[in-house]
Amino acid sequence: MAQYTTRILFVLLSVIINETSFARICNSSGENWYSVRWWTDKEIKDTKCLGTQPTWMKERKDILGPLKMKQIFLPGTHDSASYNENDDRASIVSDFAVTQDLDILGQLIHGVRYLDIRVGRYHETNEIWWTNHGPFYRSVSLKTVIDQVKKFLDNTEEIVIIDIREFPVGFNNISDHHALATYLEDEFRDYYLPNNYGWGTTLNEIWSSGKRLIIGYENMRIVNSHSSMWPYVLHQWGNVQSTEQLFRYLDKIETSDRNSATRPRSAMAEMTADLTYILFNGLTSLRDMAHKVNLNVTNWYSTVWQYSANIVAVDFLRSTDIVEIAIESNENRHLHCRY
């Protein structure tokens, strides 16, 4: 496997910044901003702001406006709603189910524009719809996700894709899917773009429509019967257990012919836990696995795949630099006409 060390990833695990502001928290010319530095005995090599990117798409409307979603590098998260509201790690189930350390609003403010949402239906609770990671881990209510997405859209002019998929609990027949689609339509009535626009729509056309939410749904019968639901984003999932295997899989999908794609695709840039890997590698959580690969993912997508990437979905967003990489890549593609 090739090694790429051209980019330094700065990670600060504990810093107090206002993560609910809809204005960017970092301006390199400002005085009150948090940063980390890389230095040697002789000199400071680099300084990086620890900031947010709540409006990065609209700020680059002149670059992104003429493009379609499949032509843009979009930062995303895997199992976006699998975060722990109480920040406790009480069991091995949660250790290997929690994939994020920011809630949905925090992810969007940090620059994520693709959300991977797995939904379960629970008839015995007051809230029927919940987010899941597999059948054994229920995270937060779907209403929590919806309210945070709406809050973000109300306060910015960004475009967001929310992908509804997997349905690991409580979906026994097509009527369950219709019920969920109807619920999403009701909740997002003033926000969603109808699917007759299609994935060939440019961002300028989306902005002009006044509707900036695209809801993907992993059931084509529902897509065909609900104008609110779009064909889901293609997940490219390697199901791998090592950094070397992940590199080989991502290299394969990023160097294949992508011109025939009719919808966006998401490179799922994380490893998959299995019992053997956990036992023989001494890992205690998905966070450990993410930290094992995220620096590599950052380097790979800032170099060899910066011109090929579409959506890149990661675990534990803040241990990557995928948002800044996506922004820089989109700017570089514009400068070098690489679409």
Automatic annotation (TrEMBL):
SMART domains: PLCXc. GO terms for biological process: lipid metabolic process. One of its GO terms (molecular function) is phosphoric diester hydrolase activity. It holds the Pfam family PI-PLC-X. It comes from the Eukaryota. Keywords: Signal. Residues 61-218 form the Phosphatidylinositol-specific phospholipase C X domain. Residues 1-23 form the signal peptide. InterPro entries: PI-PLC_domain, PLC-like_Pdiesterase_TIM-brl, PLipase_C_PInositol-sp_X_dom. PANTHER family: PHOSPHATIDYLINOSITOL-SPECIFIC PHOSPHOLIPASE C X DOMAIN CONTAINING, ISOFORM A, PTHR13593. This is PI-PLC X domain-containing protein 1-like isoform X3. It comes from Bombus impatiens (Bumblebee). The gene is LOC100744916.
